[in-house]
Amino acid sequence: MTKNNTIVFFDVTASNINRIILPIVNILSKRKHNKIIILTEKIINQKQIKKDKFLDAAQFLNFNDILRKSTKKHDLFFVTFGYRIPDLYFTYQFKKRGFKTIQVQHGMYKDFLKRSITGYFLDLNRKFYYLKKTIFFLKKFNPVIFLYLINKDFIKSYTINTIIKKNQSKLEKIKSDSVFIWGESWRQWFIDNHFYTNESNFEVIGNPDFHKFIYQKKVISVNVCYIAQTFCEDGRMSKNDYVRIIQDLSKKFKKDLYVKLHPRSNVSLYSAVEENGGKLGYQYPTASMYIGHYSSLFALALNSESKVVLIKVNNEEIPDYFKSNADYYFESYTNFLEQEHFKRKKTKRSIDQFFKNTTTPTNEIISTLIQNAIR
Fold it and tell me: Is the backbone of residue 75 left (phi > 0), alpha (psi -120 to 50) or beta?
């Protein structure tokens, strides 16, 4: 007798549910034995979820509703897309209830992100929600998990990481059974930063942006493309400092500038672009030159013949695999503004170990891996 499969998906924002989870769910929903649930907690604005785009099989339930549902004779899976406090909290809760847990890489990760406490929580509702989940582990008398959560987001100490590493066995309850990564080198990153081991199950799924942007039917061409990042939206940079960068870029490149917006970009931050004749858009273009900081989209730029310019801002480090492949890297934003001419290097670029381009779309690879785990 064929078992039914319950697969619970989770992300902390409605935009990521629409952008990342929806296409994967719609592939899995076509298989009749799959029962798909989208975990929607109170921090998620459900009005922003494109529920009409999901196939009929998908249900939208909070955690308590899921617990009330019968899962007897079901294979159980929990799929999340990060290592934020709620991701790890629900990984713990579902593992305890017999679910197999999967974490899917959703972006280009750094050891520690610069972030203010108030900016991290964004609003009072989110602040209390995250705080409640963190205190949960303290009440469970698991100080190692509590220390890990506080360190990775706020203290950011490699010395503390050394202490945690000596007690990493106590983190097993919040580690996913499988981790899906964009390239082979991310395996070591998870081992170094989140205390997985060489024996942990990693699956390479490739760079999702490669199929999302390179194989699109309509491609626009521009002279200069600035790839926007959510510095302000995520509370990592003051609005005034970021707007000053956009204003300077707009004055320097005027009508030649196109800003590739992030799905969560606050469009009002970029008013100077259109005021100076430039354009805004969400489509990734082909460009003569790409400018920005360390967005994962630079993996696409570095796989092209275009010039690539990286600028360090806000004291945030740019990964070495980007810096070594870029045509220009500026430690100072002032130095970039003073540069008049940009020429393309003739050196060969290679970042496949971090951003693998796959012939099969990443969403299909993820769906197949989940389905194979069910069998």
Answer: beta
Determine contact, residues 248/226, Cβ cutoff 8 Å: no
Count of Cβ atoms closer than 10 Å to residue 57 Cβ = 16
Q: Which one-letter amino acid corresponds to residue 350? A: S
Q: Distance between CA atoms of 257 and 107, rounded to whole angstroms?
A: 25
Structure tokens at 233: 């939206």
Rounded Cα–Cα distance for residues 183 and 180 (Å): 9
How confident is the model over 198-248, as pLDDT tens digits?
A: 999 999 999 999 988 877 667 899 999 999 999 998 888 999 999 999 999
Query: With the C-alpha atoms ordered 219, 264, 307, 319, is the resulting torsion angle positive or negative?
Result: negative
- Where in 71-168 does DSSP place strands (E)? 74-80, 100-104
- Classify residue 38 as exposed, middle or buried by CB count within 10 Å of its CB (0-12, 13-18, 19+): buried
d(CA 40, CA 130): 15
CA dist 282 and 288 (Å) reads 18
Give the amino acid at 312. Answer: K
**Nearest by Cα to 39 from 20, 57, 60, 24:** 60
Reading across the β-sheet that carries 100-104, which strands appear in turn?
58-61, 34-39, 4-10, 74-80, 100-104, 178-181, 201-204
Per the CB < 8 A criterion, the answer to whether 200 and 175 are in contact is: yes
Q: How far apart, in whole angstroms, are the C-alpha atoms of residue 116 and residue 154? A: 8
Contact call for residues 257 and 226 (beta carbons, < 8 A): yes
Q: Would you give the DSSP letter of residue 299?
A: H
What is residue 330's three-state secondary structure?
Answer: strand
Distance (Å, whole) CA 202 – CA 5: 22
For the segment 95-131, what is each residue's pLDDT rounded down to a tens digit? 999 999 999 999 888 765 555 555 555 567 788 888 8
3-class secondary structure per residue, 148-207: HHHHHHHHCCHHHHHHHHHCHHHHHHHCCCEEEECCCCHHHHHHHHHCCCCCCEEEECCC
For residues 163 and 147, is the Cβ–Cβ distance under 8 A?
yes
Name the DSSP class of 212.
I
